[in-house]
C-alpha cells in the first residue's frame, strides 16, 4: 500500500504536465434582456438566462460556467474519495 502515494504523485505529474487545449470562458455572463415577446430575468453570479426554443421565444435558465466546473470537480473528488476509501477498506482490513 506504500506505492499508492507514488502512483498518485505520478498521475498528478502527468496530468499537470499535459497541455490542455481547451478554451473555457469562466467569466460571468449577462442574461439576454429580451427574447421574442418576453423579457428575461436578470442574471446573478450563479445563473443567467438566454433565448431558446422555437424562434428563440423562451427564456432558458443556465448555470454560469464556473458553477458547472465547480460541481464537476466536487463530483470527481467525491467519487475518488469513495473509491480510495473502498480500496483502503478492502486492502487494509484486519479480518
Please give a structural write-up.
- The structure is a single chain.
- This protein is of the alpha+beta class.
- The chain is 45% helix and 17% strand.
- It is built from 2 helices and 4 strands, in the order H-E-E-E-E-H.
- The protein has helices at 3-17, 65-92, and strands at 34-35, 38-39, 47-52, 58-63.
- The protein has a two-stranded antiparallel ribbon with strand order 1-2.
- A hairpin with a 2-residue loop joins strand 1 and strand 2.
- It is elongated and about 65 Å long.
- The two termini are 17 Å apart.
- The model has no long low-confidence stretch (mean pLDDT 82).
Spatial sequence of strands, sheet with the most strands: 1-2
Structural class: alpha+beta
Individual helix count: 2
Strand content: 15-25%
Mean residue pLDDT? 82
Low-confidence runs (pLDDT<50, min 5 residues)? Answer: none
Question: Got a strand count?
Answer: 4
For the sheet with most strands, the description reads: 2 strands, antiparallel
The Rg value, from CA coordinates, equals: 21 Å
Q: How helical, in percent, are the residues? A: 40-55%
The termini sit apart by 17 Å
General shape: elongated
